[in-house]
Design a protein that fits this description.
With 236 residues, the chain is mainly alpha-helical. It is 64% helix and 4% strand. Strand 2 and strand 3 form a beta hairpin. It comes from Pseudomonas violetae.
Length: 236
């Protein structure tokens, strides 16, 4: 009889966890494990199992799972509870349409408040992306580049939503970038966007961002459609 793998088996924790830190520690530990693939998509995370694993009551576990659900990393499914969400939630076109709205607004609000250090940081992320070959790192650097440009937007809730979208994309790229033949992402879009931001040209910056995200959704949609067609053609 095959032994069922424990989805928490790859996680290491420093116990005991102080009660006042339990929710934050559980949330961050699970988030990291989901993002780097140690807990794969479709894995059910049961509250009592988590409480036993972390050595806490179910209350901080429940709160942590709610936070991860709000970040689109978990989905609540009837009779299964909290399940690790797919890499791209729902329709990729709809997902990116929402990202364009949120990120465009964040960029508009941020540009007038950016300082030289923010722009230099964004430029460093582009340089790092030019030479990076590790797929896990490419997605992270892409997220950091964009957040460097959005970071001064005063609406904190908007920034949280924006970063959630970027983390979803980071997670998708981490597991699909090699198969998409995009190991060396072109940084032309990023450099053009940064130049417009440096010029404080808000409208040009937003237009370039929209073009950049629309190109991304075209590539990802084409990949997902091809991937789905291949799966359907395989014998069951």
């Amino acid at each position: 009889m095959t032994q069922k793998l424990n989805p928490l088996g790859s996680i290491k924790i420093n116990a005991p966890i102080p009660a006042h830190m339990a929710r934050a520690v559980i949330e961050e530990t699970l988030r990291s494990a989901i993002l780097d693939g140690r807990i794969p998509c479709g894995t059910a995370l049961r509250q009592q199992d988590l409480a036993d694993f972390f050595g806490v009551s179910r209350m901080p576990v429940r709160e942590a799972l709610r936070q991860l659900e709000a970040q689109s990393l978990l989905s609540v499914i009837a009779h299964k509870g909290a399940v690790v969400a797919p890499l791209i939630q729902g329709d990729a076109v709809e997902t990116y349409a929402l990202r364009i709205l949120l990120e465009s607004q964040a960029l508009r609000l941020s540009i007038p408040l950016l300082i030289a250090d923010d722009l230099e940081q964004a430029a460093r992320h582009i340089d790092d992306l030019e030479t990076e070959r590790e797929f896990t790192e490419i997605g992270r650097l892409n997220r950091l580049f964009h957040m460097a440009l959005y970071s001064k937007a005063p609406n904190r809730r908007l920034l949280r939503l924006v970063e959630d979208g970027l983390k979803e994309e980071e997670r998708f790229l981490r597991f699909n970038l090699e198969a998409m033949n995009l190991g060396e992402l072109s940084q032309e879009d990023h450099r053009a966007l940064l130049r417009a931001v440096e010029d404080r040209d808000v409208e040009s910056s937003v237009r370039l961002l929209e073009q950049h995200l629309n190109r991304a959704v075209e590539v990802i949609t084409c990949y997902l459609d091809t991937h789905e067609a291949l799966n359907k053609s395989r014998p069951t």
